[in-house]
């Protein structure tokens, strides 16, 4: 599922679904705008083979996709408000992911690296706070749903915390 | 009135269904549907303070009044990334 808002008109910038992540496509979609960009920062989240002392075998991601896309769009708007001129692409995968696979890719282009780094970090923090996505961890000896933040996009404290981390 | 309930992640596992119809009385809120479900599924109890909810794929508060045909979703704490 994809949100068809795009800087290049053929590449959706905000996407969630089972398709493998194509970082280069995201970079191409946001980067190099008329020579005014000075930086493109990328983040890729990977499936790790250990978590909280458990040996992880694989993960399964589930999402409420239409609401996840709205959450992504909200994050993109927040980024534009906080770092004017910064542009964001975000792709999160769903379904079964093996160790070492990429679960999320974020690309931010901006005139200056400081803004691009901050906006990229802000985006992953906000994804973890408000995107309706869940990971189920399959590990040696069992499996469990990982439960993190209570999703509340209007929680100003959570948003401020994401901004604090991003700008630290 | 009838609404559709959607459950995700562990809530879905507990209930054994991702989607089902519910009859509600006029004026029923998201919260009243949640309390009804929590009465049927005791394992929902610990989620009382940590769930989020949505109506028709938009985040909504527990005091939101439901209408005929609405889709109400209950979301346990999220863990994307």
SSE topology sketch:
The complex is a heterodimer of chains A (168) and B (81).
Chain A: E1 2-3, E2 14-17, H1 23-30, E3 39-46, E4 50-51, E5 54-63, H2 65-82, E6 87-93, E7 95-98, E8 102-110, H3 113-130, E9 133-139, E10 142-146, H4 156-167
Parallel strand pairs in A: 2-6
Antiparallel strand pairs in A: 1-2, 3-8, 4-5, 5-7, 5-9, 6-8, 9-10
Chain B: E1 2-7, H1 9-15, E2 19-23, H2 30-40, E3 52-55, E4 58-59, E5 71-75
Parallel strand pairs in B: 1-5
Antiparallel strand pairs in B: 1-2, 3-4, 3-5
Account of the 3D structure:
The complex is a heterodimer of chains A (168) and B (81). Chain A has 168 residues and is of the alpha+beta class. Chain A has a single domain (2-167), classed as Aldehyde Oxidoreductase, domain 3 (Alpha-Beta Complex). Chain A is built from 4 helices and 10 strands. In chain A, the strands form 2 sheets. A 5-stranded mixed beta sheet of chain A has the order 1-2-6-8-3, sandwiched between helices. In chain A, strands 4, 5, 7, 9 and 10 form a 5-stranded antiparallel beta sheet that branches. In chain A, strand 4 and strand 5 (54-63) form a beta hairpin. In chain A, helix 2 packs antiparallel against helix 3 and helix 3 (113-130) runs antiparallel to helix 4 (156-167). The longest helix of chain A is centred in the middle third of the chain and has 18 residues, at 65-82. Chain A is globular. Chain B has 81 residues and is an alpha+beta fold. Chain B has a single domain, classed as Ubiquitin-like (UB roll) (Roll), CATH 3.10.20. Chain B contains 2 helices and 5 strands, in the order E-H-E-H-E-E-E. Chain B has helices at 9-15, 30-40; strands at 2-7, 19-23, 52-55, 58-59, 71-75. Chain B has a 5-stranded mixed beta sheet. The longest helix of chain B has 11 residues, at 30-40. The N and C termini of chain B lie far apart (38 Å). The mean pLDDT of chain B is 97. The interface between A and B is medium-sized, with 33 and 21 residues.
């Amino acid at each position: 599922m994809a949100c068809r808002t795009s800087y290049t008109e053929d590449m959706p910038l905000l996407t969630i679904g089972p398709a493998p992540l194509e970082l280069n496509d995201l970079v191409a979609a946001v980067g190099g705008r008329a020579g005014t960009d000075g930086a493109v920062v990328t983040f890729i989240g990977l499936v790790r083979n250990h978590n909280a002392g458990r040996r992880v075998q694989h993960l399964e991601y589930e999402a409420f996709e239409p609401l996840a896309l709205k959450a992504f769009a909200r994050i993109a708007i927040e980024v534009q408000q906080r770092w004017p001129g910064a542009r964001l692409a975000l792709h999160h995968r769903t379904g079964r992911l093996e160790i070492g696979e990429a679960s999320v890719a974020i690309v931010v282009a901006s005139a200056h690296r400081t803004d691009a780094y901050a906006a990229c970090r802000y985006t992953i923090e906000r994804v973890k706070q408000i995107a309706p996505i869940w990971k189920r961890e399959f590990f040696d000896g069992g499996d469990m749903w990982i439960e993190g933040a209570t999703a509340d996009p209007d929680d100003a404290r959570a948003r401020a915390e994401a901004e604090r981390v991003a700008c630290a | 009135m009838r609404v559709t309930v959607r459950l995700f992640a562990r809530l879905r596992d507990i209930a054994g269904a991702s989607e089902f119809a519910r009859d509600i009385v006029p004026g029923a809120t998201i919260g009243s549907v949640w309390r009804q479900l929590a009465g049927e599924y005791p394992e929902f109890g610990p989620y009382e303070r940590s769930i989020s909810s949505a109506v028709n794929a938009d985040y909504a508060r527990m005091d939101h009044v439901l209408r005929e045909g609405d889709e109400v979703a209950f979301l346990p704490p999220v863990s994307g990334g």
